[in-house]
Amino acid sequence: MILFGLFMIGAARLSAMERDLRFHLDLPGGQPVASYVLGLAFGFGWTPCIGPILGAILTASATSATIGEGVALLAFYSAGLGIPFLVVAGFTDSIAGRLRGIGRWGRRLHQAAGGVMILMGLAMMTGRLSALAYWLLDTFPVLARIG
């Protein structure tokens, strides 16, 4: 994590992180095969992120007191996953214009994210991450109600 943070701020070079691997398939747009390949790539990329959370939600819904509670948990999870995509699709033109404006800050944002990654890696290595979590809960008690 620290090494990746150093890479992000430009203090280290990782040639493996600077490579680009693309498959140039000649799939015409709007075809079922193209949709399948895009969905397959999307699912492959998101499985490590979604899998553990979905597993926890499925476990919680399976052990809930009523079927309605389980359905509500899965419905909120699905809505939380899908609504951002629908919002972005609905506002694509205006969002594209704003993203161009943010683009000039891209390098600085990238470096700031790298700095945060370095700090988080150091906090994990020194065991201070849980102390930070407790400090956040003491300072901002509303965080205890989230999740």
H/E topology pattern: HHHHHH
Q: How large, in whole angstroms, is the Cα Rg? A: 21 Å
Strand content: under 5%
Enumerate the spans where pLDDT stays under 50 for 5 or more consecutive residues. Answer: none
Mean pLDDT: 83
Main sheet summary:
none
- Can you count the helices? 6
The percentage helix is over 70%
Total E-strand runs:
0
Gross morphology is extended
- Measured between the Cα atoms of the first and last residue, the distance is 25 Å
Structural class of the secondary elements?
mainly alpha
Please give the structural blueprint:
Layout: H1 2-9, H2 32-62, H3 67-90, H4 92-103, H5 106-126, H6 129-139
Transmembrane segments: 33-58, 70-92, 112-137
Protein name: Cytochrome C biogenesis protein transmembrane region
Keywords: Membrane, Transmembrane, Transmembrane helix
Features:
membrane; transmembrane helix; Cytochrome_c-biogenesis_DsbD; transmembrane; Cytochrome C biogenesis protein transmembrane region; mainly alpha; 147 residues
In short:
The chain has helices spanning 2-9, 32-62, 67-90, 92-103, 106-126, 129-139. It is mainly α and 147 residues long. The chain has a domain at 2-15 and 66-145.
What does this structure look like?
The longest helix has 31 residues, at 32-62. 73% of the residues lie in helices and 0% in strands. The protein has a domain at 2-15 and 66-145. The two termini are 25 Å apart. Helix 1 packs antiparallel against helix 5 (106-126) and helix 2 (32-62) packs antiparallel against helix 3. The protein is built from six helices and no strands.
